[in-house]
Amino acid sequence: MEQPLNRSERLPCDMQRDRRCWTSSIAIGVGFTVVAMAFSLLALPAFAGVHAWIVPGDIWMVTGAALHVWNGALGYVYEVNSNWYSLPLSAILLAPVVGLSDHLHLVGGTPFPIAHPTSWLLIGPYSLLYGIFLLHAVRRLAWEVGVHRRLWAVQALSVLLVLFPAAQWSHFEDVIALTFVVHATRRVLAGDTSRAALYLAVAIASKQWAMLLVPAVVWAAPVGRRLTTLLLAASLPGALALFTLGVDWRHASHALLFPSVVYSGNPGHLAFFAHWLGSRTSRPARMLALAASPAIAWRTRQWRTPAQLLGALAAVMVVRALLEPVNFSYYWSPALIAAGLSGAAARRRVRWQDWLWPTLAMVWTYPATTSQTWMRLIFPTVTNSAMWWAGEALLLVAASIAVGGACGLRLPGRGYPVAGLAAVSERADLACSPSLSSRAPSGALPSARS
């Protein structure tokens, strides 16, 4: 049964603005940064009596590359650390603060770990404050899909599902990538696939997992614009990759084309197949994820409502997590935030039922290693493989509810099929777009697809 449009849905689009978007994003982002830095600097002295700071070791991989950028050696960023595989956009963004740290003679935590790496006092807040842009992007997307109340709750859940795990491992480049993926999703929903491709290009230049979404954006474009959309999405990451490969093939090719992960002693959640091919297991696994993304994009090419598109995004990101030989909490963030937003878009409001399973799945991954997961407290003798399956099951449930709701199935957390919401969404879109209302046929949802 269709729901009547409320007063806010009958207002012109330019009168429906989230006037607290930036204010709320800055307040929550700065508050999270203060809490995270306080925990980093004070937790060990206060609770363990150890005079040291908690600084995630992964941050020093990108800081070394950023120092190369600051010194004018962008092409040689991959010679610093053989375990850093991201495209160098994050190093470029971090270069000014690393240069300032170097100018002030502050001490880093590499190559030898120290108790008080003073450069963390600059690098830590700088990297954490990028969360403000993620919170802003998520709130804008929620507003544009019809969620106009409890937006602070969506942002608080974004802290739980995205910012906290990224801070735990100090991978702010994943926050940047997800920020631009959210903006790309907004532009796809608006029918502006060219700008969506540009946003996606920035996301890929920060972290390559965003490549999995290129087929979906290309299929969303009109037939005559699909090649242009593909080229736009490949522009910035292609330029950075070609430049570094041309300058330093030896190190850049290892990082970008033939990455190898050593799983012995790895602190992540190891899959049962993690050791099948030794350090090369990640290569075929990620190639399979890349091969699966066009298939998912083709299967969901007719999905047009916000809930459907977000459900498709969750499905693509879940495939990546399932095929990774080792999982970390921030690997799951894109899939879980998309699953929660899909439920919010379907209902056009924030409900705890839509965020329950994403939250449970993320809490499962918070401990650093498989030996520290919550199940160890209950079943001390359980195997690592069993715990991996349990975690993946939580992830699959969260994504299945989102995708099932997008397909119109009555699943937990969905009071009615998403297909029944299409007419409501269409009426709101037509009310905000007089030009569309004069051209769109009755019962058809306007789309950029041909």
Spatial strand arrangement across the major sheet: 1-2
Name the structural class.
mainly alpha
Count of DSSP H/I helices? 20
* Number of DSSP E strands: 2
| Helical amount | 55-70%
Strand content: under 5%
Compute the average pLDDT.
84
- The sequence of SSEs as H and E is HHHHHHHHHHHHEHHEHHHHHH
Major sheet description: 2 strands, antiparallel
Using the CA coordinates, give the radius of gyration: 22 Å
How would you explain this protein's 3D organization?
Helix 6 packs parallel to helix 8 (172-189), helix 14 (306-323) runs antiparallel to helix 18 (384-406) and helix 16 (352-365) packs antiparallel against helix 18. The protein has one domain. It has a two-stranded antiparallel sheet with strand order 1-2. The two termini are 29 Å apart. With 450 residues, the protein is mainly α. The chain is 63% helix and 1% strand.
